[in-house]
């Protein structure tokens, strides 16, 4: 048999101490790896927590700040605390270039005074300097060593202040770059992708603040323009009402004279002249009568707008009783039935509300069909108002013409078929408008119209 050597593994017994040492080494390596992973994970968690805290502070500043200036000021402070860098400023786009917005955070105002002064005095066109590159590209930019970057126009002022590196990122409204925020450090720093990702979100938040400010300013401008327009329209309406009142009042006397003389001619010379002369005189008498009616209605319309409203409790049932009495002859001539259901007491001007009801009921009698007229007046309760409805079975109003019936001088039927000046419903509209209500007309099923108007609830003034 061959000799066995002492170091033959088949004959050498395992060394328990060696096995123990090997096991301990493996455990020690595993523990170190676990500690390294735990430390790395904790560091990552800490970093992520810092990122989240920054974004939370920025979001809070964006939502709570009273204006853009206050929001940017707080956000610059938060950015410097997050990065540990001592200088931050904001620039906004004006006329296609970036200009300092006057917002800064500096750890040592005296030390960085020269750099701040130069930055405030410099406009940055697209592609010029650090902010100009961000404006042109729409993406963050980082300069690790300012001393080596000749494209940085403020290099000498920055170096004199001890600034060594900087980065900037865009402020975005949608895809539009509306500003740039830049930060500077007193030590060289290599680009940090994590930081750039975080500040990109900050740029979006600041952009939302600016977008809200733009919307607010636009709304204020629009409201201001609308207010000016309303004031102009109100002045114009007042002037027109005054003109209509004065013109109508002054026209009455000469028109009465013309009407009187024409009627005198008709009585004295009727049948004594040729038939054409009698026809001309008749036309003149009719025209002067229509002109008098028009002037009378114009005066009524202008008075509605000029006279102050007396707001007091008005019993609409009593108003309808007066309307029935004043239209007794018209109701009898038309063979009409006026049906009045229970009506409420509202707050308004009794005289104007009586004029409103008279006009609506009178129109229902005037624009009747072949069937015997039936006019029904009733009320419906709404949330904060009463709706009064005046329904008839007359000739009705075409749907496409309904919005026009409340316009001045609007006539839907020839004068030969229905007399009138076309001002009555305009007066109704003005009365309801002055009572803070609305008026409309709809077609009734089966024929006829339904005029309805609202009178808001409220205490008597």
UniProtKB/TrEMBL annotation:
Residues 1-23 are annotated as: Disordered. Keywords: ATP-binding, Kinase, Nucleotide-binding, Phosphoprotein, Transferase, Two-component regulatory system. Its main location: membrane. It is found in: Cell membrane. InterPro entries: ADH_Zn_CS (IPR002328), GAF (IPR003018), GAF-like_dom_sf (IPR029016), HATPase_C_sf (IPR036890), HATPase_dom (IPR003594), His_kinase_dom (IPR005467), HisK_dim/P_dom (IPR003661), HisK_dim/P_sf (IPR036097). Residues 246-459 form the Histidine kinase domain. One of its GO terms (molecular function) is ATP binding. Residues 10-19 have a biased composition (Low complexity). It comes from the Bacteria. It catalyses: ATP + protein L-histidine = ADP + protein N-phospho-L-histidine. SUPFAM superfamilies: ATPase domain of HSP90 chaperone/DNA topoisomerase II/histidine kinase, GAF domain-like, Homodimeric domain of signal transducing histidine kinase. Pfam families: GAF_2 (PF13185), HATPase_c (PF02518), HisKA (PF00512). Its EC number is 2.7.13.3. This is histidine kinase. It comes from Paraconexibacter antarcticus.
């Amino acid at each position: 048999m061959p000799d066995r050597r002492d170091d033959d593994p088949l004959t050498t017994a395992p060394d328990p101490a060696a096995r123990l040492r090997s096991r301990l080494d493996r455990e020690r390596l595993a523990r170190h790896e676990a500690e390294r992973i735990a430390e790395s994970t904790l560091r990552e968690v800490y970093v992520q927590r810092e990122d989240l805290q920054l974004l939370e502070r920025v979001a809070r500043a964006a939502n709570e700040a009273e204006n853009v200036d206050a929001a940017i000021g707080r956000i610059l402070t938060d950015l410097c605390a997050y990065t540990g860098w001592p200088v931050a400023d904001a620039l906004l786009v004006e006329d296609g270039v970036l200009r300092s917005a006057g917002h800064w955070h500096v750890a040592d105002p005296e030390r960085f005074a020269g750099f701040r002064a130069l930055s405030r005095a410099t406009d940055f066109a697209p592609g010029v300097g650090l902010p100009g590159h961000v404006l042109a590209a729409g993406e963050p930019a980082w300069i690790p060593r300012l001393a080596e970057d000749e494209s940085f126009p403020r290099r000498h002022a920055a170096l004199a202040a001890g600034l060594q590196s900087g980065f900037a990122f865009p402020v975005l409204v949608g895809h539009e770059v509306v500003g740039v925020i830049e930060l500077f450090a007193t030590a060289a720093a290599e680009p940090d992708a994590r930081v750039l990702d975080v500040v990109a979100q900050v740029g979006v938040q600041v952009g939302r603040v600016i977008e809200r400010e733009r919307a607010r300013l636009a709304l204020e401008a629009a409201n201001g323009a609308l207010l000016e327009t309303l004031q102009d329209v109100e002045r114009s309406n007042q002037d027109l009402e005054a003109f209509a009142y004065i013109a109508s009042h002054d026209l009455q006397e000469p028109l009465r004279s013309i009407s009187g003389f024409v009627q005198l001619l008709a009585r004295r010379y009727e049948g004594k002249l040729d038939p054409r002369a009698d026809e001309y005189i008749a036309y003149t008498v009719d025209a002067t009568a229509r002109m008098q009616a028009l002037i009378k209605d114009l005066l009524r319309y202008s008075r509605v707008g000029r006279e102050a409203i007396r707001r007091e409790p008005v019993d609409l049932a009593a108003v309808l009783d007066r309307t029935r009495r004043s239209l007794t002859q018209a109701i009898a001539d038309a063979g009409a039935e006026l049906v009045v259901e229970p009506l409420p007491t509202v707050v308004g001007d009794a005289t104007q509300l009586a004029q409103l009801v008279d006009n609506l009921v009178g129109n229902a009698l005037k624009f009747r069909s072949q069937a015997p007229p039936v006019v029904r007046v009733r009320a419906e309760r709404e949330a904060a108002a009463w709706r009064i409805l005046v329904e008839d079975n007359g000739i009705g109003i075409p749907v496409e013409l309904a919005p026009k019936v409340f316009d001045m001088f609007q006539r839907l039927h020839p004068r030969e078929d229905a007399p009138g000046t076309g001002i009555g419903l305009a007066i109704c509209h003005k009365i309801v408008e002055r009572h803070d209500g609305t008026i409309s007309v709809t077609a009734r099923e089966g024929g006829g119209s339904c005029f309805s108007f609202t009178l808001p609830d409220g205490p008597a003034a």
